[in-house]
C-alpha cells in the first residue's frame, strides 16, 4: 500500500497537493475542482476522507498488475 502511494506521488512527494495525478483523482471521485486544490484544502480533504482513501489504496495495491498481466 505504501509503495503505491510512493509511486503516485512521484515528483511531488513533499508537495503532494501539486501532483496532477492526485488532483485528477480527487476531482474525478470527490468532485473538487483540480485547480482549486491547495495545501489547506488537500490536507482537509485527506483528513475527512482518510478511511475511503485507505480503502482505495488497499484495493489498488491488491489489484495492481492484475489488468496488465496476460492470462496465458
Q: What series of H and E elements makes up the topology?
A: HHHH
| Class from helix and strand fractions | mainly alpha
Inertia-based shape = globular
Q: CA-to-CA gap between the ends?
A: 27 Å
Helix content: 55-70%
The Rg value, from CA coordinates, equals 13 Å
What is the number of helices? 4
- If you average the pLDDT, what whole number results? 83
Major sheet, described briefly?
none
β-strand percent reads: under 5%
| Low-pLDDT segments | none
How many domains make up the coordinates?
1
Please give the number of β-strands. Answer: 0
Q: What is the topology?
A:
Elements: H1 2-8, H2 20-30, H3 39-48, H4 50-63
Question: Could you list some keywords that capture this structure?
Answer:
single chain; 72 residues; mainly alpha
Quick recap:
This protein is mostly helical and 72 residues long.
Q: Overview of this structure, please?
A:
The protein has 72 residues and is mainly α. It has one domain. The protein contains 4 helices and no strands. It starts with a helix and ends in a 9-residue tail after the last helix. The model has no long low-confidence stretch (mean pLDDT 83).
